[in-house]
Design a protein that fits this description.
By secondary structure, the protein is mainly alpha-helical. About 70% of the residues lie in helices and about 0% in strands. It is elongated, with a radius of gyration of 21 Å. GO terms for molecular function: hydrolase activity.
Length: about 240
């Protein structure tokens, strides 16, 4: 499914279920649901989540900085010839990578930074850092679209937010799971339990097609109905 559909369905359904179950829907729970609904696609550099976190303007700025850094390396005594020329050429070449590849490299470096410099948040810094690094190496709908990815994200939320109630980790974990269930409607489906090759797929749609858009709109409409029901019940309780 498209990122827009994942965002609406994952956030709307998870928060509605929380409200109907009697849990308090806090701003933190909403934030967890929004992130959880998009997080599985972090292994796709051009997904809605990654492209918003690393927009095209930021990539162009990084490219300019890399070209400037290449000039600095070449014209300063940082490296002796011919290494200054070699390093400068490598940096210039890297600055012209496609946006998809550049986003992967940036995510990889962010993962290393979190794992290396986030010791105050151990062991979660290693978990988050390793997850980002792995996401740049695995294919789309790989590790993040599995039961293991769902468990890791939900467990991370539970361990870090349980003192603030249950709504945060429940919202984030449910939204993440809903993303996987939504992708199971596509022709490709998902492999929820690798290394087992079994796929969960219902073959109802193909992302980016007219039929796919119709299925997404139906799911969004059903989500809207559930949200209205949750709001009406909330008002009734008040």
């Amino acid at each position: 499914m498209m990122g827009r559909a994942h965002l609406i369905i994952g956030t709307g359904v998870s928060l509605s279920v929380l409200a109907l179950s009697g849990y308090e829907v806090t701003p933190a729970a909403v934030a967890a649901a929004v992130v959880g609904s998009l997080l599985p696609d972090i292994d796709e550099p051009n997904s809605m989540l990654v492209s918003r976190a690393l927009p095209a303007k930021m990539l162009r700025l990084i490219q300019l900085l890399m070209i400037g850094a290449a000039g600095w390396v070449f014209f300063t005594p940082m490296a002796p010839p011919p290494w200054n020329l070699i390093l400068a050429l490598l940096m210039i070449s890297a600055s012209f990578m496609p946006s998809r590849s550049m986003r992967k490299v940036i995510i990889f470096l962010i993962g290393i930074g979190i794992a290396w410099y986030g010791e105050a948040y151990a062991p979660w810094n290693y978990i988050a850092g390793c997850l980002l690094i792995i996401c740049t190496l695995v294919p789309h709908r790989g590790l993040t679209h599995t039961v293991y990815g769902t468990a890791a994200w939900t467990g991370l939320l539970y361990a870090t937010t349980r003192l603030h109630g249950d709504s945060i980790w429940l919202a984030g974990g449910m939204a993440y799971l809903l993303h996987l269930l939504a992708d199971s409607l596509t022709n490709n489906g998902i492999k929820p339990l690798p290394p087992f090759k079994w796929k969960l797929r219902f073959k109802l749609m193909s992302t980016g097609t007219r039929k796919g858009a119709k299925v997404e709109n139906v799911c969004i409409a059903l989500t809207a109905i559930l949200v209205v029901i949750a709001l009406l019940r909330y008002k009734h309780l008040m």
